[in-house]
Amino acid sequence: MTVVGIDKMGFYTPGMYVDMAELATARGEDPNKYLIGIGQSKQAVIPPTQDVVTMAANAAEQILTPALKAEIGMVLFGTESGIDNSKATAVYLAHLLGLPQNTRAIELKQACYGATAGLQLAADYVRVHPQAKVLVIGADIARYGLRTAGEVTQGGGAVAMLVTADPTILALDTISSYHTEDVMDFWRPTYRTEALVDGKYSTNVYLDFFKTVWTGYQQQTQRTIADFAAFAFHMPFTKMGRKGLRQILPEATPEQQTQLTTAFEASQADNRNVGNLYTGSLYLSFLSLLRHGQLAANSRIGFFSYGSGAEGEFFSGVLQPNFRDGFVEEQLAQQLANRRRVSVAEYEQIYAAQLSNDGRDVQLAVGEETATYYLAGRQHEQRQYRKQ
Ligand code: CAA
Question: In CATH terms, is domain 4-169+326-387 a member of 3.40.47.10?
C-alpha cells in the first residue's frame, strides 16, 4: 500500500505575547501556579489584524512553493473559531494563497479535534489518489475571557500540513482508535465569542478519553508502550499533556520512562510559549518534538487528539529519514524569538479590540503588522484581507 502522511509543516503565531508570571501577579495568583501548576510561560496575544484565515495563510506560505500550490487538490481547514457560519474558511484561504480553482475547500469543526479529522480524511484520500496533495490546517484563537479561570489557557496560532504519498516527515499508520460521546465539558454557542467550559470536568474527560482510545489502539494493533519513542498530546496547557503521559508511564520500563519523559519535555517547549491553539495544539506539540527532541528516523510516535464535546483519537506514525527537511527550522525559531512582550494592560486592550460582532464597517490600524497576510478591516460586512 502507498505510504501516506505529513510531508511538510508550517506554523504561525502573531508577533506578541504576554508573560505568564506578570499575568499571574496581575490576577493576584502565585506565578508558580501558572508557570508550574498550569505549565505556561508565555501566551500569544492575537491582534485584531489576525484571524484564523490570515494565520493559516501565514503558516501555509512557509511550506508552499508556487509549484506546490498549483498541485493542491483539496484544502481541509480545522477550526472552532471560524469567521462565517456558512462560508468555509478554506475558501477564503484558497483564494488568498492563489490555489487552483479545481480544488475542494471545506471547513471541519469538532472543537480541538478538527485538524485531526482533516489529517485522517486527507490521508485516506491520498491512499486512494496517490498523486494528490492535500493542505490540512489547524487554526484557532482560544478565548475564555479576561479574569476567568480559563484565561491562563488562552493563546492562538495556526499549523499547516501538506499530506502526500511518500512524505518527508511522518508516515501515518492506517489503524487508529477513536471515541465519541456527547459531553458538555467545553462548548461555544453561536452567539458567543468566548468559550463556555466546565474546567475541572474537561480535564477529567480528556484523561478518560485518552485511556479509552489508548486501550482500543493497543487491542487493535497488539502494540504496547514499548513500541513508541515519544507521544504527542493535544496540549490546551502543558500540564494537561504531562498528566496524559503520567497516566501510561507505569506501563514502561524505568529506562523507557526516562526516554519518554525527555521526549515529552521537547514536545511541550513551544506550546509552553504560545498557549492553546485548540485544534492546532497537538500539531504544534509534534513540531516542538521534532525541533527540540533527539528522535531517530523510523521511530514510532503516538498521537492523542482530543476535542471537547467530545471526540478523542489515538493514532500513530513513523518518523521518516529526512524529517528535518519538512519544516523551516530557522524561520520557526526566529518567529518565536522575535515576538514583542506586551504588558498586561496592553494585552487587555488588544483582547478587547477584536473585530466587533455588529457588522459595522471598520478600518483596522495595520501599521504594526509585519505578517505576509493580515486583516485590514471590514466593509459591507465582508472581511478585507491583504497580502504584503
Ligand atoms: N505552585 C505550583 N502549582 C500550583 C500552585 C502554586 N503556587 N497553585 C496551584 N497550583 C497547581 C494546582 O495544584 C493544580 O495542579 P494539578 O492540576 O496538578 O492538581 C494546577 O496548579 C491548577 O490549579 P487549579 O486546578 O486550582 O486551577 P484552576 O481552578 O484555576 O483551573 C483549569 C485550571 C481547569 C485548567 C482552567 O484553567 C480551565 O478551565 N481551562 C480551560 C479548560 C481546559 O483547558 N481544559 C482542558 C481539557 S479540555 C481540552 O483539552 C479541549 C480544549 O483545548 C479546551
Answer: yes
The contacts of residue 41 (CB under 8 Å, 6+ apart) are 19, 20, 21, 35, 272, 273
Q: Identify the pLDDT of residue 1.
A: 78
Residues (pLDDT < 70) of the chain are none
Residues 239, 292: Cα–Cα separation, whole Å? 18
Query: Could you identify the atom of ligand 1 that is nearest to the CA of residue 198?
Result: 39
**What pLDDT does 368 receive?**
83
All 3 cell numbers of residue 168?
518527508
Task: Indicate which residue of 61, 80, 107, 369 is catalytic.
Answer: 80
Q: What is the pLDDT of residues 56-90, one digit of tens each?
A: 999 999 999 999 999 999 999 999 999 999 999 99
Instruction: Please state the CATH superfamily assignment of the domain spanning residues 172-325 in this structure.
Output: Thiolase/Chalcone synthase (3.40.47.10)
Going from the Cα of 345 to the center of ligand 1, the distance in angstroms, rounded, reads 23
Identify the pLDDT of residue 117: 98
CB 39 within 8 A of CB 239: yes
Segments making up each domain of the chain, as ranges: 4-169+326-387, 172-325
Between the alpha carbon of residue 296 and those of residues 4, 229, 233, 283, 302, the distances in Å are 19, 9, 19, 19, 15
Nearest to 137 by CA among 151, 121, 152: 121
285 vs 280: CA distance, rounded Å: 9
Quickly count: other Cβ atoms within 10 Å of residue 112's Cβ: 30
Residue 22 corresponds to which cell in the numbers above?
A: 506578570
- Indicate if 80 belongs to the active site: yes
Which tens digit of pLDDT belongs to each residue from 200-235? 999 999 999 999 999 999 999 999 999 999 999 999
Residue pointed to by grid coordinates 508516515? 171
- State the Cα angle at 121 between 296 and 318, rounded to 5°: 10
pTM recorded for the entire structure: 0.98
Q: What is the CA radius of gyration of the chain?
A: 20
Strand 155-165 versus strand 4-12 pairing type: antiparallel
Q: Which of 61, 107, 151, 234 is catalytic?
A: 234
Closest CA to 160 of 238, 273, 71, 277: 277
